[in-house]
Design a protein that fits this description.
The chain is built from 2 helices and 9 strands. The protein is α+β, with helices and mostly antiparallel strands. The protein has a single domain, classed as Immunoglobulin-like (Sandwich). The protein is elongated.
C-alpha cells in the first residue's frame, strides 16, 4: 500500500510540472505572436525616461514625420534659473547624426517646441524609430553641460 502512495505522489508531481511547462510555453508563444506589445512597451519606457530622468530638460512630447521632420517639446525642469539649450544632437544607431545648434533660452518651467526639419532619413508611417539624443546647454552660471541620453527616444513615424 505504501509503494502505491509513493507512485501516486511522483505522478502528481510530474503532471503538475507538465502543466507549468505548458503554461510557460503558451505565454512565450503569445508574446511572440504579438510583437506590437513589445514595441509599445519600449515606447512607454522611453517616454518615461525622457519625461522623468533627463535633466535639465525633459522631452515632454516628440513626433517624427515620415517625411523626416522631428518635433520635440522640451521643458526646463530646473528651478534655479534660465538654461540655454545650445545644441541637440540626434542620430540613429550607428549613423552620423544631425546637430541643431540654434541657442534657445528656457526660463524655469518653460516649455518650447523645437523643430528639426528634413534632416534625418524618412521612414514609413506607423513604423518604429529609435533616436539617440544628446542635449548641450549652458547653465544660469554660464557653465557648459551636456546630457547624454542613456536610452533612445522611441516612437512611431506619423
Amino acid at each position: 500500500m505504501l509503494n502505491n502512495m509513493r507512485g501516486q505522489g511522483a505522478t502528481e508531481y510530474l503532471v503538475l510540472l507538465a502543466v507549468v511547462l505548458i503554461i510557460a510555453l503558451v505565454s512565450i508563444a503569445l508574446l511572440g505572436f504579438f510583437p506590437g506589445l513589445a514595441s509599445d512597451a519600449k515606447i512607454t519606457q522611453s517616454n518615461s525616461y525622457w519625461q522623468g530622468d533627463a535633466r535639465p530638460f525633459h522631452i515632454i512630447e516628440h513626433a517624427y514625420s515620415a517625411a523626416g521632420t522631428l518635433n520635440l517639446i522640451l521643458q526646463n525642469v530646473e528651478s534655479t534659473g534660465t538654461y540655454t539649450l545650445t545644441a541637440i544632437n540626434v542620430s540613429f544607431t550607428n549613423t552620423t547624426g544631425y546637430s541643431y545648434t540654434t541657442a534657445t533660452s528656457f526660463a524655469p518651467g518653460e516649455t518650447k517646441n523645437i523643430s528639426i526639419i528634413a534632416v534625418l532619413p524618412a521612414g514609413t508611417s506607423g513604423s518604429l524609430y529609435e533616436l539617440n539624443v544628446n542635449l548641450s546647454y549652458t547653465s544660469p552660471n554660464s557653465l557648459s553641460g551636456k546630457f547624454v541620453g542613456s536610452k533612445p527616444l522611441i516612437g512611431r513615424y506619423n
